[in-house]
Amino acid sequence: MKSKIHLLLPWAILMVLTITFSGQVSAKALMLKPFKSLSDQSKECVACHKQEDPSIYAQWGRSKHFGANVGCYECHQANNDDPDAIHHEGYTISVIVSPKDCSACHNEEVAEFSASHHANAGRIIGSLDNMLAEVVEGAMTMNGQSPAAVNGCWQCHGSEVKVMANGDLDPTTWPNTGIGRLNPDGSVGACTACHQRHEFSMIQARRPEACGKCHLGPDHPQKEVYDESKHGINFYANVDRMNMESAKWIVGEDYDAAPTCATCHMSATRELPVTHDVGNRISWTLRPAVSEKIDATAIKQGQTVKTWQERRRDMSAVCDACHTSSMIDSFYTQFDSLVELYNTKFAIPGKRMMATLQEQGLMTDVAFDEKIEWTWFYLWHHEGRRARHGAAMMAPDYTQWHGLYEVAERFYMELIPEYNEYVEKAEKEGKHEAAEAARKVLAEILESPEHLWFTGNEPKEVTEARQKAQAEFKKRYANED
């Protein structure tokens, strides 16, 4: 481990460097410094980098580290036996400042982060997403790695940073500030994914743009979803009233215009401390094909974790700063019903259909070599996630037109017809038992009440009521000039 601890006075530096994470620190504490002056080692660093890297010097000069006389050497010092140690101007340093290094002062924050889902983001090797980047869209043409993965997936998820034989960092894995980066010192994560070096601005980390580098795009559009929501609209309209430079930044006390991503998932409330476990207040997991309560997998594995009910209680405590309990409860009723609808009507049946084709030997074992695999992937990985995230963050257009509308179109107009093609092909090839088994599964799915409109078996009174409402709608608009 890089030995920086001996340079620090832990109590004083924690008061200064964790000021952005504490909800109860006095203004006087802001004036404390761990050192009376900058260390001799950092003075040498600064003398050179002020000329060679003026932007880095300026960023550090605006940071709380500067105010605490914490300089380059305090963070970059390394031991000779560190895997990524290099000798530079008479000192042993490392380019990478890892969470293990940050934990010399920010030990609680690093411990919370290490327990979070973010910390596991770099372990995507073998996932469908990574297979797409390495094989389908990419090729191993960059020193044995795929440029698509190196420049795409890994820059958000993180990669294993490798040190080459000559001591240089492997360019297929560095630079990288992915949130789940696997560091040479054995630690996981990159604090700089959110706290951009070398200023580490708390204002920047609190703004929604900090999350937008990764939580963006067709399959995880949380930033766009937030921008559409009333929360996002209020934030941008009233950003000058957000008091984002506040040391404690407690919603309902220091600001009330709107929440940001940090407000809901990390920041302090009147009841809750700051947390660096971003899943600590999430009750559903909206990532997989079929959503589960956030603690479901751990329970299946016999683990004891914070329950989804406790997590929801904590998120509700954030909402409580601005909303009544009845409104919060009603929101969760709406949100839960949307997730359950998506699961029941589309995700569980779709997953069952894909599994049936595999079990009956009607598909190959190669991923993404058949159109139906792409159809299913779009349905849950893109459109299904958008619908669920839209409901979670109150963005109706993402719930509807970018979400469930596209899920439904994909399910009825593509997945089912493509599934039936496999059944017909099996019949032609004499695989009658497999064809019958697959046909039976689809028939059972379409017998569910929510699919009866599609098969023409909807109860007559339901059809007539809808036709009456449609006729009245047309009449209203027909009478307008």
From TrEMBL:
<dbReference type="Pfam" id="PF13447">
    <property type="entry name" value="Multi-haem_cyto"/>
</dbReference>
<dbReference type="InterPro" id="IPR051829">
    <property type="entry name" value="Multiheme_Cytochr_ET"/>
</dbReference>
<dbReference type="GO" id="GO:0016491">
    <property type="term" value="F:oxidoreductase activity"/>
</dbReference>
<feature type="domain" description="Cytochrome c-552/4">
    <location>
        <begin position="102"/>
        <end position="161"/>
    </location>
</feature>
<dbReference type="Pfam" id="PF13435">
    <property type="entry name" value="Cytochrome_C554"/>
</dbReference>
<dbReference type="InterPro" id="IPR036280">
    <property type="entry name" value="Multihaem_cyt_sf"/>
</dbReference>
<dbReference type="InterPro" id="IPR023155">
    <property type="entry name" value="Cyt_c-552/4"/>
</dbReference>
<keyword id="KW-0732">Signal</keyword>
<feature type="domain" description="Cytochrome c-552/4">
    <location>
        <begin position="31"/>
        <end position="76"/>
    </location>
</feature>
<protein>
    <recommendedName>
        <fullName>Cytochrome c-552/4 domain-containing protein</fullName>
    </recommendedName>
</protein>
